[in-house]
Amino acid sequence: PAEKVVVMVDDNGKKKLTTSPALWKTFAASTVSGMVARTAMHPIDTLKAKLQVQIKGNYRSLLSVAMHTVRSEGAVGLYAGFPTALIGSAPASCLYWTSYEASKKAMFELKFMRDYPSVCHFCSGFMAEIVSCVLWVPIDVVKERLQVQSDLKTKYRGNIDAVRTIWKNEGWGGIYKGYGATIISFGPFTAIFLMLSERFKVMAMDYLNVKSEKEVPFWMFVCTGASSGAIASILTNPLDKAKLRLQVQRATLSQGAEPLFHYRGFWHGLTSIYATEGWFGLFRGAGARMLFQAPSTAISIACFEWIRARML
User: Each residue of 78-135: pLDDT tens digit?
Assistant: First the structure.
């Protein structure tokens, strides 16, 4: 499809020009951005998962998790589940960004959405998460079980063995365990992140006094991506924590071990964390999540926006 220029009015009544790129350009930019972000930030993601899965507070900080992991598993332990994350990130990122762009383009046809683009970006982000989770959920299930298996005493020999074991013992239910929980947790995260990112981008263009995204420097995209990702990650940490625990608890059950958690569903998990661990428990791991999401979203959206802008 051809590129299309859309006149958009931001929330302060200012007109902005935005370009709806050809689909192949979104494919190319999203593939590179997704793989680069996953490669750079996977060790922090592993530490975040270990922090969130604990109940008794065995880890005091991100540093203590890192030291324990390296001592007991070696540096390779930081990259548990990495092959699955890397290979899966390319098609999943493509689906994520193309869904977002397609949703945004469709919603801009409505006058209300053109007048209030922040609402449009929020809704488009949520829609992108719903669609892309068809790929992200299986990737996360395998990745997260490998990342925390030393803490849960499960036994997967590697990425391929994890996929085979989950499929053999649990079928589609195991592969897509926590799909609804992922939508509930990452839907708001993605919606907030993309809404803020688009808003910060407009503010950056005003600050730099430029009229085209192509004139925005790479470092500015890094700043807008990191800021929006950090805010969204902290606000939605309790949702992510309940989702992660729900996804990994089935691993211990399927292998005959006593599970650390006994959650009947997402909301039961969320309320149980609050009841047993309090507000601090809900936000334990928020710092690690922010340390993962802020640079990850910064790298992802900076690469995506910068590469795509040079293709326009």
Answer: 998 899 888 888 889 889 988 998 999 999 999 999 999 999 999 999 999 999 999 9
Q: Which of 16-25, 160-169, 179-188, 191-200 has the highest mean pLDDT?
A: 191-200
312 three-state secondary structure:
coil
Cβ-in-10-Å burial (0-12, 13-18, 19+) of 193 comes to buried
Residue closest to 164 by CA, chosen among 189, 155, 147: 155
Task: Tell me the pTM.
Answer: 0.76
